[in-house]
Design a protein that fits this description.
The chain is globular and about 65 Å long. It folds into two domains: 113 residues, Phosphorylase Kinase, domain 1, CATH 3.30.200.20; 227 residues, Aminoglycoside phosphotransferase (APH), C-terminal lobe (Aminoglycoside 3'-phosphotransferase, Chain: A, domain 2), CATH 3.90.1200. Helix 3 runs antiparallel to helix 7, helix 3 packs parallel to helix 8 and helix 7 packs antiparallel against helix 8. By secondary structure, the protein is α+β, with helices and mostly antiparallel strands. It is built from eleven helices and eleven strands.
Amino acid sequence: MSVELLEKLSHVASHFDLRGVLVDVEPWGSGHINNTYRLTVDQSGLPVHYILQGINQNVFPNVPKLMENIQRVTRHIASKNPGDSRASLTLVNADNGEPFWRDEDGSCYRVYLFIEGASTVDAVSSPEQAYQAARAFGAFQCALADLPGGPLFESIVDFHHTPKRFQKFLKVLKEDKLGRAALCKAEIDFALAHEKECSVVVDRLADGRLPSRVTHNDTKINNVMLDDKSGVGVCVIDLDTCMPGSVLYDFGDEIRTTTATAAEDERDLSKVKFDLDLYDALVNGYLSTAGGFLTDEEKRLLPFSGILLTFECGLRFLTDFLEGDVYFKIHRDGHNLDRCRTQFELVRQMETCFPHP
């Protein structure tokens, strides 16, 4: 870390109520959106840790509403877990009384109390880990099922609106500005054959067959803190995309990110397998905490949610490939097409296991 950056971060930290002397700043975590650092503060001889994050305003331009969401969510979960400081992220106010601070050049920062004795993993190593992650996300949704104060702010509009994703795909395909459609005819045909499935959740949200709930919308396993000794999921983190939606978005993305046996960009599709043991662990963990508040229709569509969210992700990769790789970062020619193919292969395998609605 450069001296200049260290001085800047120290200046930012000085605007938060850290109740001690800052003694260390170090980069932290593996997130891709926000720059994250761990602070060590001397509080009367006791080292206390905090997390400092720079908020990516390209992704989240309305910082006050974003932080209002997070404050509402964290306070509500904390109110249901008195005495358990690890059950929810804890925001630290800035010296302006707000849960974030804006510096002279307009950059915004926030600080959380560091959760001790727990850590994250970037990939599931066992069915037990999958169970614990799903259990934690289910508990998170359950705690927020009665969040007062009206709907949360929609931090990314239409994030999981699959029909709109499909319409963008059709538009990009029709234009085919780079002539890439000829390179992926099989994938295009697969996408076109799944148009009907795109509207299953959106239509049911619109007509009331599915309730709108508080959802996390980024349910990768590395967004759950696991206790270092017991492995139990203790806290859900990365709350920037908490907003109204369907629980099926969250559970479906858990299926997508947890049950694949190969990397997201694996070129050898024979290595891409849908792991039913991990799926069963997810279902059991999730229903152990969420089963009591889910409707029958939500439970019925849990298997389909994996198909939908995996298809949506593959469709986004395919659209980006056709458009010229303008959204997802690539590291080789055809990278987004490779990513699309792994997702569509997972969809094919899921479809042999689960009926469509």
